[in-house]
Amino acid sequence: MKNTLGLEHAENIDIDRAHRVKSRNKTECTIIARFTRFKDCQSIFNKAKTTLNSNLSFSVQQDFSDRVKRLRHKLGERMITEHRFTQEFSTTCTSSTWVQR
Asked: Would you say 78 and 86 are in contact if contact means Cβ atoms under 8 Å apart?
């Protein structure tokens, strides 16, 4: 973490648990880590956003439960539907509304 992400306080980050997950591709390996402090986790995510944009060799992501993934997927679909409805409604209203002075 210190070398790749450039975290100065990497030695102060406490990892509660970390393990590897077997992958289909033998050259790639997924590592799951649980941090003791939420603040450490957030600092890693923030640093990864700014540092790893150009580096495609690995990525940092949160591991959400299946329930959360399912709910977020439904929310995303609803947001798309609402956005389309709002655009249609605003175009309809603007084209037929006239203000006279």
From this structure: no
Length of the chain equals 101
pTM: 0.52
Q: Is residue 29 within 8 Å of residue 23, measured between CB atoms?
A: yes
Q: Is residue 46 located within the same domain as residue 7?
A: yes
What are the tokens at 42? 């957030």
Indicate whether 7 and 46 sit together in one domain: yes
pLDDT tens digits, 20-61:
888 787 777 778 888 888 888 888 888 887 777 766 666 777
**Structural domain for 22, as ranges:** 2-51
Contact 36, 57 (CB under 8 A): no
Same domain, 33 and 71: no
Note the helical H segments in the chain.
Answer: 2-5, 38-51, 66-96
